[in-house]
Specification:
The chain contains three helices and five strands. It is of the alpha+beta class and 126 residues long. A five-stranded antiparallel sheet has the order 1-2-3-5-4, covered by helices on one side. Helix 1 packs antiparallel against helix 2 and helix 2 packs antiparallel against helix 3. The protein is globular. The model has no long low-confidence stretch (mean pLDDT 85).
């Protein structure tokens, strides 16, 4: 599993790591399926990384890799606050990322740790 552990990882760095893992997987898939998987994976990692950076003091660990028939993304940050699904409000931008992550992933788990949390999101490859 490709793992990055640093305070300095950016959303772009996380997306690059996802692209590297997807390059191994997508070469054998039909083009529409490969494009959907790439788009979904990049959106999920962008949402998780951006939320960690904006709301939780930054990423402390990031990993992406293959797990059975899925791609696993793990994002850790220094906040013990569990993400909440917000009710959409007219005129208020944002607030939909957690819902998007939950809809696109086959599994999403939040593990509280003494110094923060780790969110594990798995996207089905088939």
């Amino acid at each position: 599993m490709k793992t990055v552990e640093t305070q300095d990882i950016s959303c772009a760095d996380a997306r690059s790591a996802v692209r590297e893992v997807l390059a191994e997987v997508c070469c054998g898939l039909p083009l529409p399926q490969a494009q959907r998987l790439r788009d979904d994976a990049l959106l999920v990692v962008s949402e998780l990384a951006a939320n960690a950076l904006l709301h939780a003091g930054g990423l402390t660990r990031f990993s992406v890799g293959l797990e059975g028939d899925g791609m696993q993304v793990r994002v850790s940050d220094g906040s013990r606050e569990v993400p909440q699904r917000l009710t959409p409000a007219p005129g208020r931008p944002g607030g939909h990322g957690w819902m998007v992550v939950q809809r696109l992933c086959s599994r999403v788990e939040v593990e509280l740790e003494p110094d923060g949390k780790t969110i594990t999101a798995v996207l089905a490859l088939v």
